[in-house]
Design brief:
Layout: H1 4-10, H2 37-45, H3 59-71, E1 76-80, H4 83-92, E2 100-104, H5 109-119, E3 125-129, H6 135-141, E4 146-152, H7 164-174, E5 178-181, H8 186-189, E6 199-203, E7 217-221, H9 233-236, H10 247-251, H11 255-268, H12 274-284, H13 287-306, E8 311-315, H14 325-331, E9 339-344, H15 347-357, E10 362-363, E11 373-375, H16 387-392, E12 399-403, H17 409-439
Helix pairs in contact: 1-3, 3-12, 4-11, 13-17, 15-17
The chain binds pyridoxal-5'-phosphate.
The site of pyridoxal-5'-phosphate has 16 residues, from helix 4 and helix 5.
């Protein structure tokens, strides 16, 4: 199925032989009945195909997994309860205490939190590459115990574009897998696996679902990394559950997904409800239409914002002024996504005024919705970070992040103009007061 728009409505579908239901049914069941002792034994032993319990697998969830794997051009996917769960499963399928993860500096605040507050407590070392465009820095920071390289295809919220092929080459030299969070780009705009990423993760809560109704996450093994000759002893060494065989011997190229599904996802337990899998699948079927439209509107909004004197900076890789523009031309020719940031010269006072005056944008921490959303990161999602970290990652007091939805572009710009007017009026009032005070 070569064309994306065809694959997004058909790939991985399983026809319902019993009733002919055209849409994958919602198999909302905790477990699956066995016909016999032998069938139960066969299913648990893996000798007989079929499901056992929805924490280990479910037909509705499996249909979503096949579709996202197909859209990413990957080998196999695991769907879990949120984007955070996807990152956790992807990483704990690889690393253990004493291992080191090398990540781009500009990553989603929850991912940074997972690294610094979650994984560090488990004895996993995390290091950030200050300038992710500098491949020599990536190379220099790889250590003997590095077990994964990580970055976001489009960073949230700075919109810096990752040089995926460049970092993939560093990962290959180091002999470790390269994980890319492709949430903001989606496989419609960019497939990291085509440029050398080995594992792709998604917050399906965003564009894949698309309607802001459901949390979910997906891990895709692209099939490019050779698990058999990897440094991961839990995949290549003998395993008690596999009667002394290794995951590689038992599952071949599926070793990583088999381990991540049966040990990490199933036993840590961050399961996706089949109902949510169904809702995300509905969203995936219109992905290309939504993302193209949202991305086109985002560019128009970014250009408009750049022309406003109250705005000192616009972070959107589709603008010629953005440092990532050359990478955007290379990796994202169809569009650069629908998340953008802009900084008001008036700092937090101006940001508060702007934020409180919009009427169409919803004041929310979320992205990828059909509705347009606005967030002030420094006082909300990034408030817990040290000021230096905020500054290093471009989160100033005057920064507002927008997620562009499917509304009419003119209506959105009219709403933003309301915000600009509120800032400009306040500036004019201050200027009048200064003039009046000077004249006294
Ligand atoms: C790039 C990125 N990755 C992961 C996540 C986490 O996703 P979730 O909220 O579904 O756990 C987010 C959430 O905003 C995100 O923007």
């Amino acid at each position: 199925m070569s064309e994306f728009s065809t694959a997004q409505v058909h790939a991985g579908e399983a026809r319902d032989a019993a009733h002919g239901a055209r849409v994958t049914p919602i198999y909302l069941t905790a477990g699956f009945e066995f016909d016999s002792y032998a069938q139960a034994e066969g299913r648990f032993g893996g000798d007989e195909p079929g499901y056992t319990y929805s924490r280990s697998g479910n037909p509705t969830t499996a249909a979503l997994e096949r579709r996202v794997a197909a859209l990413e051009g990957g080998r196999e996917a695991i769907a879990v309860g949120s984007g955070q769960a996807a990152l956790t499963v992807a990483l704990l399928g690889l690393v253990q205490a004493g291992d080191h993860i090398l990540s781009a500096q500009s990553v989603y605040s929850g991912t940074r939190g997972l690294f610094e507050n979650g994984l560090r407590r488990l004895g996993i070392e995390i290091e950030f590459v200050d300038d992710p465009t500098d491949l020599t820095e990536w190379r220099r920071r790889v250590r003997p115990n590095t077990r994964a390289l990580f970055g976001e295809s489009i960073a949230n919220p700075g919109t810096d574009i990752l040089d995926i092929a460049g970092v993939a080459a560093v990962a290959r030299e180091a002999g470790v897998p390269f994980i890319v969070d492709n949430t903001l780009a989606t496989p419609y705009l960019l497939r990291p696996g085509d440029h050398g990423a080995d594992i792709v993760v998604h917050s399906a809560s965003k564009y894949l679902g698309g309607h802001g109704s459901t949390l979910g996450g997906v891990v895709v093994d692209q099939g490019s990394y050779d698990w058999a000759s990897s440094p991961f002893a839990h995949l290549t060494g003998p395993d008690e559950w596999l009667e002394g065989a290794s995951y590689v011997e038992a599952h071949g190229a599926a070793a990583y997904t088999a381990f991540s599904r049966s040990v990490v996802a199933s036993l840590f337990g961050p399961v996706l409800s089949p109902l949510n899998a169904f809702l995300i699948q509905q969203g995936v079927e219109t992905l290309s239409l939504r993302v193209q439209r949202q991305s086109d509107t985002a560019l128009a909004v970014a250009r408009w914002l750049e022309a406003q004197p109250e705005v000192s900076r616009v972070d959107y890789a589709g603008l010629e002024s953005h440092p990532s523009y050359p990478l955007a031309l290379r990796y994202l020719p169809k569009g650069q996504g629908a998340v953008l940031g802009f900084t008001l010269a008036g700092g937090s006072v101006a940001a508060e005024r702007f934020y409180d005056s919009v009427e169409l944008f919803s004041r929310m921490t979320h992205i990828g919705d059909v509705r347009s959303l606005i967030l002030h990161p420094a006082s909300t999602t990034h408030a817990h970070l040290r000021r230096e970290v905020r500054e290093e990652t471009g989160i100033g007091d005057g920064l507002l992040r927008l997620s562009i939805g499917l509304e009419d572009p003119d209506d959105l710009i009219a709403d933003l103009a309301r915000g600009i007017a509120a800032v400009a009026t306040a500036d004019a009032t201050v200027a009048d007061a200064v003039v009046a005070a000077a004249g006294r």
